[in-house]
Amino acid sequence: MRDTYVGSIDQGTTGTRFIAFDHAGRVVASAYEKHEQIYPEPGWVEHDPIEIWENTKAVITRGLDDAGIDADQLAALGITNQRETTVVWDRETGRPVHNALVWQDRRTTDRVEELTEAGKAEEIRAKTGLEVDAYFSATKTEWLLDNAEPLKMRSARGDDLRERAEAGELLMGTIDTWLVYNLTGNHVTDVTNAARTMLFDIHDIAWNDDLLAEFDVPAAMLPEVRPSSDEELYGHTDPDGFLGAEVPVAAALGDQQAALFGQTCFDEGDAKNTYGTGSFYLMNTGSEAVESDHGLLTTIGFQLSGEPVQYALEGSIFITGAAIEWLEDVDLINNAAQTAELARSVDSTDGVYLVPAFTGLGAPHWDGRARGTIVGMTRGTRKEHIVRATLESIAYQTRDVAEAMEADSGITTTSLRVDGGAVKNDFLCQLQADILGLDIARPEVDETTALGSAYAAGLAVGYWDTLDELRDNWEVDRAFAREMSGAVADERYGRWGEAVERSLDWAGEE
Question: What distance in Å separates the CA atoms of residue 356 and residue 52, rounded to the nearest whole number?
Answer without folding.
Answer: 27
